[in-house]
Amino acid sequence: MIKAGITGGDSTAAGHLIRILINHPDVEIVWVEAPFEEGELIARHHRGLTGETYMSFCAKGNPEEVNVIFLCNSEDGDSERYMRHTPIPEGVKVIDLSPDFRSPEDEESPWVYAVPELNRKPLVRGAVRASIPGPLAHIMLLALLPLAKNLLLNAPIHVNMVTPSSPERPGEVSVVLEHEEIGEAQRALQVLQSSCSAPIHLTGIAGGWNRGLACTVYMDTPISEDDIKDMYDEYYEDHGFTFLSESFPDLGGVRGTNKCLLHVQKTGQKVVVSAVLDDSMKGSASVAVHVMNLLFGLQERVGLTLAATADD
Amino acid sequence: MIKAGITGGDSTAAGHLIRILINHPDVEIVWVEAPFEEGELIARHHRGLTGETYMSFCAKGNPEEVNVIFLCNSEDGDSERYMRHTPIPEGVKVIDLSPDFRSPEDEESPWVYAVPELNRKPLVRGAVRASIPGPLAHIMLLALLPLAKNLLLNAPIHVNMVTPSSPERPGEVSVVLEHEEIGEAQRALQVLQSSCSAPIHLTGIAGGWNRGLACTVYMDTPISEDDIKDMYDEYYEDHGFTFLSESFPDLGGVRGTNKCLLHVQKTGQKVVVSAVLDDSMKGSASVAVHVMNLLFGLQERVGLTLAATADD
Amino acid sequence: MIKAGITGGDSTAAGHLIRILINHPDVEIVWVEAPFEEGELIARHHRGLTGETYMSFCAKGNPEEVNVIFLCNSEDGDSERYMRHTPIPEGVKVIDLSPDFRSPEDEESPWVYAVPELNRKPLVRGAVRASIPGPLAHIMLLALLPLAKNLLLNAPIHVNMVTPSSPERPGEVSVVLEHEEIGEAQRALQVLQSSCSAPIHLTGIAGGWNRGLACTVYMDTPISEDDIKDMYDEYYEDHGFTFLSESFPDLGGVRGTNKCLLHVQKTGQKVVVSAVLDDSMKGSASVAVHVMNLLFGLQERVGLTLAATADD
Amino acid sequence: MIKAGITGGDSTAAGHLIRILINHPDVEIVWVEAPFEEGELIARHHRGLTGETYMSFCAKGNPEEVNVIFLCNSEDGDSERYMRHTPIPEGVKVIDLSPDFRSPEDEESPWVYAVPELNRKPLVRGAVRASIPGPLAHIMLLALLPLAKNLLLNAPIHVNMVTPSSPERPGEVSVVLEHEEIGEAQRALQVLQSSCSAPIHLTGIAGGWNRGLACTVYMDTPISEDDIKDMYDEYYEDHGFTFLSESFPDLGGVRGTNKCLLHVQKTGQKVVVSAVLDDSMKGSASVAVHVMNLLFGLQERVGLTLAATADD
């Protein structure tokens, strides 16, 4: 039984993570830190957990009691401070959901950049620190990794991202044009294709939904549609959560799951890749559990056969 | 391993059911009937199943090959016709999701009225036929069973139901005043309180969401709030999916799960019970799996630790 | 030209009101108070007004410059304080959107309880103070006034209200059972039927939409459906914004308008009245303009031929 | 008084159009054709019109009785057939909402391509036939016309369009890559900049809302942000429905109106233009009324001071 501790337990990401871990057959949650809610029932704060757990938040969890710590603090810098001030016993693994240790380009860093479809080897071979990618970088990478692997990122890349709306302003079209996760994705792609210097042009618009990322990427390429599809099939063949779909993917098909659905087509000179994932799952909590499974040598799907809504 | 067959495999209910059964550790799906889609990949029809299954629909499944058959035909009368025309080997269990065999009042019927919170005993003691309740009847029953058990249904009962909208007319306020499931609930309540002749006044309005039932029931009663809460606590103590909540329940807390959340309060002379459940899960597919677990002597929560969205 | 001033100009109600008044052929807005946003462009705060006005908020408007003041302060007590501290020249009319002066039962109060369908006469005959009803009270009244007028409120009244969700918790089912507007409606009904002592049982649930009230009211009555429909037809014959509908009314049919749609039917002993209105229009800003039209002797529909969305 | 006839009266576009014309001070609707609903009350079909009109549909309207005919048939080819088979008296104007007569490039065609911001002159100078642009072409044009006017469309143009979902599949991400309205927009732009041969790369994703188009366009350009903003200000200065916004535009700010809001910025070498409009209004019914105002020499805003929702 893997004993787990969670910091930032009152964050949304922690709420999703706790729910997954409660139902994971090989995990026992030992403590959940939330200093400002010490003593409060977790299920009273994360109301979706009613009936699932009777644990309460604690102020400070003891790293000696656990095998893995999930850092879910939502402020930038919190994870870095936690690591600086907290003595972590050797062998205790740490999975960080914040941006603090994301360094895809630094192969010497103890923090493995934890995209399982890119870095499964270091994750299963003894890593003790894993940094979960940002959700925008993650979906861009899943859309582009097979092209980078085949050294095909040789033209400007255009990314059209539709993100969740903020609940306060459901109809607002706030356009994102610059984002730190563009650089994160770019550096990760260069690990596969060091020559890749193609700029990424991102436009992001808030869609009218409250969960889910939908992303369309296109670039010019001379390669044929069939060849490209073969590359994607081959690249993702061994990966249990990323699938090619013959029809356009649907947010309803990934909501609540750790899945990413991809669709590839060629139109004129352009290859167009569409991708969908649930930013609070594959983009955050469930990928953290996926990474934990890899770090501890479990089958990667354990505890992650989550509810896709069949028809929503 | 329980071998399962499914009829009406192209229905929405079947889509949810297949997804749950695929991830159920003790079940193997042997066939899924959908005569008009014979040979079609199930995951192409139920797109949320992409990556979960590579089975195809068949025209006619063989009852000899399975231990349990789920009848998911969506037209009234289909299940009755299926049972009339299909020889079912002795010992093969049948779980019907249609209204065809719902007879809560008939204790001689081979078809157990499959509300686990009401009829768990007959379900676990050798039943081979189970009829899943209608979702409106089901939520009314979960809100009222403890009162019936304590013979307290002695005044008119007012039920205010908010149902999903039809996707075609999201803002329409179609008011329901008469519904066959009122009688269904009434007959089931009389099993516990034979004297119960209180009329049920139902008004139902389509809310602006696409999944979930929210129900508020009230009636006059002289009993105190504390005593009533104790009755609910005691009644649901042994049941793994129905919970009392201290705050008003939230559809987000049950979406995608087999849970029902209840809230009980007294205001003036009235007891007011609020209930929420996901009509496509606890109201349909997941309760069918719950009932299967009981029929086969499994622990009732197996395969049903489904994703509640922690904060949505 | 009627010169208008508005307090609480940064409130949502003021935003709707400004938009209506800008397009009203007989009104000129002279000032809009919003002390904390003094000097800010109104259209920058109320973004729907982009292109409609280039006015800015002021800190304090001068009552001497206007013929009518709309009080849109959103805190209870603000209107009362405004009236206490601000010298209002004789003849300047005041329309209050807050609860501060709602006293439907007090026929001596200078503040007319401004439900046009109930109090049109005092409004057109020289009133200078008008208090806009609460939206829940307003919709209950529109559903019940013809019954009160005919002295038929002689049994308990059950009201099932579906309200907008708060944007922060879209799926939350927060049930309302007690509300000050129940008493407000009750006192207003007693003006028509002094013998009316029937209790009003309200259950309110937040629906999944962000605008609109849907209300179903029922009570026992011996009167026939046809007779009741005749009473409603007669009562609302002269009123330009409240209509009987033969089918169940639809929020889409009133959104953005000053309309209330009613549907009346008898089921068993019960008369069931369904009503829909847009709480930010007929429940607030547009009814204030309707009342202004009456106070100034204009045709009641001027400036209020607002967009119903034909099919949404 | 302009006498108007409408064909295809049971279409959604006709529903919106009727509602606007009913409240237009200079228009009288004489007939509304809907052969399959002959005799049916219009307000029973278009339920948002309850209380607004007591007219019924007719099978065939007489062109001799009207001054203008709006063609709202929703099938391609219907308008062309109507014009071929129906004798239209000289001087009766026809406004077509279908694609049948859209030929922006053909300056000899009797059908003026009716983007008021592009072709106001021919519209006000005696045109008798007007073809309403497609909504996708329309929003692309409003985003690009000032650049074309200044001969600046000299690099590939990338268009990221978020469209309404189909009500049946609210979460579906159906990606559009090729669309006849790309060519329509391209030909219209060449009227201003004949040298414009820049390709338009469109990706369209269905967003989570049921009304509204949000569009982001970008292209490389050496011109500075200030100079570009000046061009937009100058181009739209005389146009009463298209506005530059300093913040990112919001669908809530245009819903139900004839407005288009634009935002312009420069990021790196790229100019990025964001635009929002309501596809059923500025993209269809209200622009048809706008065009009618121009054809008949009315002030362009008459009857179109429609409800923007101030804060939704």
Automatic annotation (TrEMBL), chains A, B, C, D:
A GO biological-process term: L-arginine biosynthetic process
GO molecular function: NAD binding; oxidoreductase activity, acting on the aldehyde or oxo group of donors, NAD or NADP as acceptor
Pfam families noted in UniProt: Semialdhyde_dh, Semialdhyde_dhC_1
InterPro entries assigned: AGPR, AGPR_dimerisation_dom, NAD(P)-bd_dom_sf, Semialdehyde_DH_NAD-bd
Semialdehyde dehydrogenase NAD-binding domain mapped to chain residues: 3-126
Database matches in Gene3D superfamilies: Dihydrodipicolinate Reductase, domain 2, NAD(P)-binding Rossmann-like Domain
Keywords recorded for this protein, A-Z: Amino-acid biosynthesis, Arginine biosynthesis, NADP, Oxidoreductase
Record protein name field: N-acetyl-gamma-glutamyl-phosphate reductase
Natural source organism: Paramuribaculum intestinale
